[in-house]
């Protein structure tokens, strides 16, 4: 599955995972934005950390996304 397809199918779930931690302003970049993604690409998400965010927040986001249905994209 192309990352753009996974994003379209799971956008709300991805948003909920990201927003449940101390980060904000999540946005997609890379091949998905440029419309050049293939099954070999991953989904690139850039986030801004809140002042009280920790590396545990980032790890939790990554873990939750990789174990969610959105992980069908292969690597987030």
UniProtKB/TrEMBL annotation:
Keywords: ATP-binding, Magnesium, Metal-binding, Nucleotide-binding, Nucleotidyltransferase, Toxin-antitoxin system, Transferase. Signal peptide: none annotated. Its cofactor is Mg(2+). It comes from the Bacteria. Pfam families: NTP_transf_2. InterPro entries: NT_sf, Polymerase_NTP_transf_dom, Type-VII_TA_antitoxin. Belongs to the MntA antitoxin family. Residues 15-55 form the Polymerase nucleotidyl transferase domain. This is Nucleotidyltransferase domain-containing protein. Gene3D superfamilies: Beta Polymerase, domain 2. CDD domains: NT_KNTase_like.
């Amino acid at each position: 599955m192309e990352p753009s397809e996974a994003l379209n199918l799971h956008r709300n779930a991805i948003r909920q995972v990201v927003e449940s931690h101390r980060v904000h302003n999540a946005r997609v970049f890379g091949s998905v934005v440029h419309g050049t993604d293939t099954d070999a690409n991953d989904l690139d998400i850039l986030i801004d950390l809140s002042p009280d965010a920790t590396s545990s927040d980032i790890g939790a986001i990554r873990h939750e996304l990789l174990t969610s249905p959105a992980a069908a994209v292969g690597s987030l």
